[in-house]
Amino acid sequence: MHIHIFDTPADAATALARRVADALAQRPAIVLGLPTGRTPVAMYAELRRLHAAGEADFSRAETFNLDEFAGVEPSHPGSFREYMETHLFRAVNLQRNRIHFLDGAAADLDAECRRYENEIEASGGIDLQVLGIGANGHIGFNEPGDTLIAVTHRVTLADTTRRDNAALFGGDPARVPREALSMGMGTILKAGALILVAMGERKAKCIERTINGPITTQLPASFLQLHRCADLYLDREAARLL
Ligand code: F6R
Residue 85 pLDDT > 90, yes or no? Predict the structure, then answer.
């Protein structure tokens, strides 16, 4: 794994957005895998700025997001789809039919997971997957446990994850859905390149274990050690224990 440490979260976000813009320039029809969460907000702001400055052209790109809450309409203010509309999709020149998303409101959620996995396959696969990491080491919504599921699947969210996402549901963890849909660790590891971004002291411990610990289902991020092209973008706080 290649580790990049930046003085501030803003520096890390700027470098990451620049890396995505460079990838778009090199390969305009790139297939991007994208995360939500607090961490990538600054990266998306910088990507919007680069796009407005004519330095990031999404016209031929395709996107797949990592995950979505179950039982939530795409237009719900707490949905990851709405997050992406706000932070990126409405502000750049992505073609709507090249935006791929899990539909948490689908009638048959297992069929929805299979549809998504097939769609990723049909696109030729994800070229560059950007990832965040939960403080418990989750990736997408692949939570720590005795087993991991390789392909896109339904997930029961950990209580910590529901608390972490409460802001999207009026600050009340009880209103966060108990279930979600997520790419599997196998789906994620098939991407051509991975970039994991982590900021802040809260992530320091899981980052240290991701890099130095054993590969274990108890820390899904540790599976990144198996990837031949994985980069970590960290601020000083997240890198504190390295
Ligand atoms: C969301 C996702 C999650 C987040 C993780 C960290 O699409 O993939 O794994 O990356 O929960 O979230 P923040 O950035 O809010 O700490």
Answer: yes
* Partners of 234 in beta bridges: 5, 198
Residue 68 is a catalytic residue: no
Summarize pLDDT for 113-157 with one digit per residue, the tens: 999 999 999 999 999 999 999 999 999 999 999 999 999 999 999
Residue 67: active-site member: yes
In angstroms, the first-to-last Cα distance of the chain is 13
Quote the CA–CA distance of 51 and 67 in Å, as a whole number.
25
Mean pLDDT of 49-77: 97
Domain residue limits, the chain:
2-235
Provide the CATH topology of domain 2-235: Rossmann fold (3.40.50)
Q: What is the mean pLDDT of residues 53-63?
A: 98
Q: Is the CB of 132 under 6 A from ligand 1?
A: yes
Residue 124 CA to ligand 1 center (angstroms) comes to: 25
In the structure, how many helices (H) and strands (E) does the chain have?
A: 7, 10
Identify the helix (H) or strand (E) that includes residue 85: helix 80-87
